[in-house]
């Protein structure tokens, strides 16, 4: 443990041995929690089919803010411990040595509550269902697999998990803060959401890298506390996360935004107008309006055809009516 770090009494008095006995005895209960979670998703969605969505902004803000504060405090406590360990023993040591968990009570305390928080975070899905928002596969798949893997790795004291915990806490600090401010109706730039999703992608790359380093240690014949089975399982998990988050990033920020079409329009307009030395900001604005007008072109054309047909029809009816009236008078 970093001697220069102040340790709180609740961290110092953490019963590491008791916690390990409990998790090694009951870690399989995570499968029960996951089963109940999936059942509640199914029942909850059916129950909400005939009901109006709940707003729940205040509850969501409190929920997200609480998890954000927890993640921020955890990051601040464990980051200095890991950095000190790398400085003293090297990175390779951190992916293979188990003794760190028992010797460093600061890390042990916060990593224990990290494992417990994975059960609490299942509550995220309740807000999605009760607010009748779209439930993506990535959301519930991520919650299920993280809970199962975290409890399994905790009872085995897998050394690589210290990096997984730190990366997850760091990303969740930003993610839950974002959710909290959004629930409080703060106007947050779209670039912030893109940055958070990018950080999640980098987290998956970091997870793959840590596993690769552990594999190298095993392949070199070194005794390593991270087993090959755990490495394979973790690589499969992180690879699937990366693919799903990359797919989400593309659909959310590239495909839906029409960014490729917009860039094409800007480049085309810049090329056509360069010789006229027009102002760059004016070109971009015109390109944006052209991009917007393209989306409305079909609708306007259809509307024009309908209006023309309607006017023609009314004109014919009026003309017919004028010719008929004199004969009725006679």
TrEMBL record:
This protein's major location comes to membrane
Note the InterPro entries from the entry. Answer: ELO_CS, ELO_fam
Please give the coiled-coil regions recorded for this protein.
Answer: none
Catalyses which reaction?
A: a very-long-chain acyl-CoA + malonyl-CoA + H(+) = a very-long-chain 3-oxoacyl-CoA + CO2 + CoA
Q: What GO biological process terms are annotated to this protein in UniProt?
A: fatty acid elongation, monounsaturated fatty acid; fatty acid elongation, polyunsaturated fatty acid; fatty acid elongation, saturated fatty acid; sphingolipid biosynthetic process; very long-chain fatty acid biosynthetic process
Write down the EC number: 2.3.1.199
Q: Which UniProt keywords apply?
A: Fatty acid biosynthesis, Fatty acid metabolism, Lipid biosynthesis, Lipid metabolism, Membrane, Transferase, Transmembrane, Transmembrane helix
Give the membrane topology.
Multi-pass membrane protein
Q: Where does it reside?
A: Membrane
Q: Name one GO cellular component term.
A: endoplasmic reticulum membrane
GO MF: fatty acid elongase activity
Could you list the residue ranges that cross the membrane? 26-44, 56-73, 110-130, 135-152, 164-181, 193-211, 231-250
Q: Tell me its family.
A: Belongs to the ELO family.
The molecule here is called: Elongation of very long chain fatty acids protein
Source organism of this protein record: Strigamia maritima
């Amino acid at each position: 443990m970093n001697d220069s770090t102040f340790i709180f009494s609740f961290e110092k008095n953490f019963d590491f041995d008791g916690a390990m006995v409990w998790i090694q005895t009951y870690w399989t209960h995570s499968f029960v929690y996951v089963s109940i979670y999936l059942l509640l998703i199914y029942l909850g969605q059916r129950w909400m089919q005939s009901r109006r969505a709940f707003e729940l902004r205040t509850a969501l803000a409190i929920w997200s803010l609480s998890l954000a504060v927890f993640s921020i405090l955890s990051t601040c406590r464990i980051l200095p411990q890991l950095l000190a360990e790398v400085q003293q023993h090297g990175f390779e040591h951190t992916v293979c040595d188990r003794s760190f968990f028992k010797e460093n009570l600061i890390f042990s305390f916060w990593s224990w509550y990290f494992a417990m928080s994975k059960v609490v975070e299942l509550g995220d899905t309740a807000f999605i269902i009760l607010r009748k928002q779209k439930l993506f596969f990535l959301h519930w798949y991520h919650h299920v697999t993280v809970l199962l893997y975290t409890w399994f790795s905790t009872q085995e004291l897998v050394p690589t998990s210290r990096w997984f915990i730190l990366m997850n806490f760091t990303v969740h600090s930003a993610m839950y803060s974002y959710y909290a401010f959004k629930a409080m109706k703060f106007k947050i730039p779209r670039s912030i959401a893109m940055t958070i999703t990018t950080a999640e992608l980098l987290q998956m790359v970091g997870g793959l890298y840590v596993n690769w380093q552990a594999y190298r240690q095993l392949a070199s014949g070194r005794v390593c506390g991270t087993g090959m089975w755990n490495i394979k399982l973790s690589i499969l998990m992180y690879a699937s996360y990366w693919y799903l988050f990359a797919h989400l990033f593309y659909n959310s920020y590239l495909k839906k935004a029409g960014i490729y079409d917009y860039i094409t329009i800007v480049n085309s307009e810049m090329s056509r107008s360069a010789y006229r030395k027009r102002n760059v900001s004016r070109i971009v604005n015109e390109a944006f309006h052209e991009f917007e007008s393209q989306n409305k072109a079909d609708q306007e054309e259809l509307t024009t055809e309908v209006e023309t047909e309607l006017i023609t029809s009314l004109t014919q009816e009026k003309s017919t009516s004028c010719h008929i009236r004199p004969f009725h008078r006679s």
